[in-house]
Amino acid sequence: AACIERLRLAVADVATLEEHCSFSVDEDAVAHFVLRLAFCRNPSLCDWFTATESSLLAKRAANAEARVLVGAAESLGLVLVNPSPSSTNRYFTMPFTEVLPRLIATRRVLLQRGMALVPESEAITVLVEKYKAH
User: Fold this and answer.
1) What is the predicted pLDDT for the residue at 114?
2) Most buried among 24, 54, 69, 93, using CB within 10 Å?
3) By three-state DSSP, how is residue 94 classified?
4) pTM over 0.85, yes/no
5) For residue 110, what are the β-bridge partners?
6) CA gap 96, 99 in Å, rounded
7) What is the spatial distance between Cα 23 and Cα 64, in angstroms, rounded to a whole number?
8) Angle value at C-alpha 128, between 1 and 14, nearest 5 degrees
9) Closest C-alpha to 115, from 73, 75, 79
């Protein structure tokens, strides 16, 4: 039953990716779902599969256009803002409680009224972590 629920959530992920990506998701979708079903039976295999898919996502995101990353981030509920008209830096806002502790520890985020401003350059990190959590 858990495998079927994961597959249902994965189908929703593919629909979101197709809206924002310049490549056809169909090329990888069938293989992804078959592997996901095969690897979800064992927790250690599921962890390995998630880590491998996360690496693939990070590499694809690094090669993607900025508009694709912004679209993917916005589909996850992150909002792109420019805190100052004179600033060229753009940030994604997200609740402070959802920010990766590593980003806070290395002081890569700004905190403002309970919200974290994550630099656009860290968007890939946030997307990969949200994928792992999903």
Assistant:
1) 84
2) 69
3) strand
4) no
5) 117
6) 6
7) 10
8) 55
9) 79
Q: What would the pLDDT profile of 7-48 be if each residue is shown by its tens digit?
A: 555 555 555 555 555 555 566 777 777 787 788 788 888 888
How far is the CA of 74 from the CAs of 1, 100, 126, in angstroms?
A: 30, 18, 12
Instruction: Tell me the C-alpha distance between 18 and 77, whole Å.
Output: 17
pLDDT tens digits for range 90-115: 888 888 888 888 888 898 888 888 88
- Single-letter code of the amino acid located at 116: A
The pLDDT-based confidence of 118 (bands split at 50, 70, 90) is confident
Q: Which of 134, 127, 130 is nearest to 64 (CA)?
A: 127
In this prediction, residue 76 carries a pLDDT of: 78
Residue written as tokens 């994965």? 10
Give the integer Cα–Cα distance in Å for 3 and 113.
39
Please report, as a single letter, which amino acid is at residue 71: G
Extended strands (E) in the chain: 79-81, 91-95, 110-112, 115-119
Residue 89's pLDDT is what? 79
Structure tokens at 111: 């905190």
